[in-house]
Amino acid sequence: MKFLIATILTALLSFIAGIFIPLWWFFAVVALLVALLVHQRAGKAFFAGFLGLFILWFVLIFWMDNGNDGVLSAKIASLLPLGGSKWMLIIVTAVIGGLVAGFAALSGSYLRSPGTKK
Tens of pLDDT along 82-92? Predict the structure, then answer.
């Protein structure tokens, strides 16, 4: 249950922060704060942050891509070594965002953990 809550909170708060805060990387701060508030083991925190932002960015990129009939993504995909596939561009972009949020959530989980006992 904590995993689902952390995933939804990461996606929802990242979306809201993206509207009001003009910094593209601020979703990492959101993922770190969610991991601090919803304590989980490190692996689950990483995956919750990754999955929350991966789904958010995938949906947002797909929505924007359909808004311009895929013209921009096709041109960018032809510049990168993706074989001109706009779907690969969307997936790679969502994976990069997911990794950043996942590592931020992992950091938040480690900040919350009590550390090693002697």
Answer: 888 899 999 99
Residue type, 111: L
Q: How far apart are CA 30 and CA 32, in angstroms?
A: 5
Q: How far apart are CA 67 and CA 54, in angstroms?
A: 20
Helix 42-67 vs helix 26-37: angle between axes, to the nearest 10 degrees?
Answer: 140
CA distances from 53 to 11, 36, 81 (A): 5, 17, 24
Q: In this structure, are residues 108 and 27 in contact, taking their beta carbons and an 8 Å threshold?
A: no
Dist CA 28 CA 101 (whole Å) = 5
Q: Do residues 10 and 54 lie in contact, with contact meaning Cβ atoms separated by under 8 Å?
A: no
Q: The whole model's pTM is what?
A: 0.88
Cα atoms in the 13 Å half-sphere on the side-chain side of 98: 18
